[in-house]
Design goal:
GO terms for molecular function: argininosuccinate lyase activity. Keywords: Amino-acid biosynthesis, Arginine biosynthesis, Cytoplasm, Lyase. Its EC number is 4.3.2.1. It catalyses: 2-(N(omega)-L-arginino)succinate = fumarate + L-arginine. Pathway: Amino-acid biosynthesis; L-arginine biosynthesis; L-arginine from L-ornithine and carbamoyl phosphate: step 3/3. By secondary structure, this protein is mostly helical. The protein is built from 19 helices and six strands. The strands form three sheets. A two-stranded antiparallel sheet has the order 1-2. A hairpin with a 2-residue loop joins strand 1 and strand 2. Helix 3 packs antiparallel against helix 8, helix 10 packs antiparallel against helix 11 and helix 14 crosses helix 15. It is elongated. The chain binds arginine. The site of arginine (ARG) has 10 residues, from helix 6.
């Protein structure tokens, strides 16, 4: 493509280090779409003839059919997807092919293709997250009243409802949706026509190509347009944060599926067995989602470090932008799908959860609150009295409500039999009806709002 200036061809090492075709062939659909939009615009602006444009478009469509059927050929001499397609076009249609690259450079071409690819990845993440949210909301609705221990420090803290716990992940997914949507809006400007770095002297119509490719408008600065990879970083930031959420849910599934907890039975379809221990059912999918989060964060770090010291405009370092984005996207899409399957297919063992809530002194705060309200005892003193009651119950190996009134009154004479109604786990969750609290009535409200938001009703 640039033989005119060179006396010798590239060494084997140069060819190998330079070639991006092994990975950027993934951009072939975007590359062909952008080339078609470009040449149609060149014809509309009388920069190429209609006949040449038609020949080029037919040729590009033939190439798309070939790639679809046989894959993209990998010839390192042709470096990347842009030159691979242009070389094939020249074979197919002859000299007219040489007019396609008028008023464009690979710098604006790759920036455009990559934006189109990342925009699709954002749309895939958004579709996956919508499915995950629907699964969470459905299960939360089923378990608006199921009681489980809520934890801090992974120590039993206060009873919560299972529906409330699942809706916490709905909120995280909602923020992920907002991040991807926001990133998509920022991405949606078209670099095509920025050419190598300075724009072009040809009388092109950038609005036309932007519109043809579904962008809101052309980018406003050619130097920025060819050297900007913020859209890829925005995607990776959103992906990394989303993967942290998925990883936390995965970690809970791993803990809950363990025998001492026994809160959940994982679906067989997302578990594996052991080659030696016949009893085993391992939560491998959840563990891999937890593992993948580390790799996705690594992809984000990789591209941030690639970009940090680059002068304007394009530098070849930027060719390294694609592998981390491609890797993160496939890991993220799989992780979202795996967690959706787990939420859909998990059997929540509400009996075990309830038992754990009862045996963990989860209603101790309710006893303290009762002392404040009914006996007008300052909270700090109530806390102390309750601590003594927990100590006694723990020593006897029983739940708080199994202590007799005599035993409780021996700790503090102001306690009377009404206290028992505050000590049940049901009373505890029902009492927490502040906005966003765990009370079943509140959870049902949040579930109803979410179902409406997701168009489920
Ligand atoms: N393969 C290149 C990349 O992915 C395309 C742009 C090449 N531009 C250049 N000036 N060498 O970044």
């Amino acid at each position: 493509m640039w033989g005119g200036r060179f006396a010798e061809g590239p060494s084997a090492i140069m060819r190998e280090i330079n070639a991006s075709i092994p990975f950027d062939k993934a951009l072939w659909r975007q590359d062909i779409a952008a080339s078609k939009a470009h040449v149609a615009m060149l014809a509309a602006c009388d920069i190429v003839t209609d006949a040449d444009a038609e020949t080029i478009i037919d040729g590009l469509e033939t190439i798309a059919g070939e790639y679809e059927a046989n894959g993209v050929p990998e010839d390192w001499d042709l470096e990347d997807i842009h030159m691979t397609t242009e070389a094939r076009l020249a074979e197919l249609v002859g000299p007219a092919a040489g007019r396609l690259h008028t008023a464009r450079s690979r710098n604006d071409q790759v920036a455009t293709d990559f934006r189109l690819w990342v925009r699709d990845a954002m749309d895939q993440a958004l579709a996956g997250l919508a499915a995950l949210q629907r699964a969470l909301v459905t299960r939360a609705g089923e378990h608006a009243e199921s009681i489980m221990p809520g934890f801090t420090h992974l120590q039993t803290a206060q009873p919560v409802t299972m529906g409330h716990h699942l809706m916490a992940y709905y909120e995280m997914a909602a923020r992920d949706v907002s991040r991807f949507s926001d990133a998509r809006r920022r991405l949606n400007q078209c670099p095509l026509g920025s050419a190598a770095l300075a724009g072009t002297g040809f009388p092109i119509d950038r609005e036309m190509t932007a519109q043809a490719l579904g962008f809101a408008k052309p980018t406003d600065n050619s130097l920025d347009a060819v050297s900007d990879r913020d859209f890829a970083l925005d995607y990776l930031q959103a992906a990394a944060q989303c993967s942290l959420h998925l990883s936390r849910l995965a970690e809970e599934m791993v803990i809950w599926a363990s025998q001492p907890f026994g809160f959940v039975r994982m679906p067989d379809t997302l578990s594996t067995g052991s080659s030696i221990m016949p009893q085993k059912k391992n939560p491998d999918a959840a563990e891999l989602v937890r593992g993948h989060a580390g790799r996705i964060v690594g992809c984000l770090t990789s591209l941030m470090v690639t970009m940090k010291g680059l002068p304007l405009a394009y530098s070849k370092d930027m060719q390294d932008d694609k592998p981390p984005v491609f890797e993160a996207a496939s890991l993220l899409n799989l992780s979202i799908a795996a967690m959706t399957g787990m939420v859909d297919g998990a059997t929540f063992r509400t009996d075990r959860m309830r038992q754990a809530a009862e045996l963990g002194y989860a209603t101790a705060t309710d006893l303290a609150d009762w002392l404040v309200r009914q006996a007008d005892i300052p909270f700090r003193e109530a806390h102390h009295i309750t601590g003594a009651a927990v100590k006694l119950a723990e020593g006897k190996g029983v739940a708080l409500e199994a202590l007799t009134l005599d035993e409780l009154q021996a700790i503090d004479s102001r306690i009377d039999e009404r206290v028992y109604s505050a000590l049940s786990v049901e009373a505890s969750v029902a009492a927490r009806a502040s906005h966003g609290g765990t009370a079943p009535a509140e959870v049902r409200k949040r579930v109803a709002e979410a179902r409406q938001h997701l168009g489920m009703d």
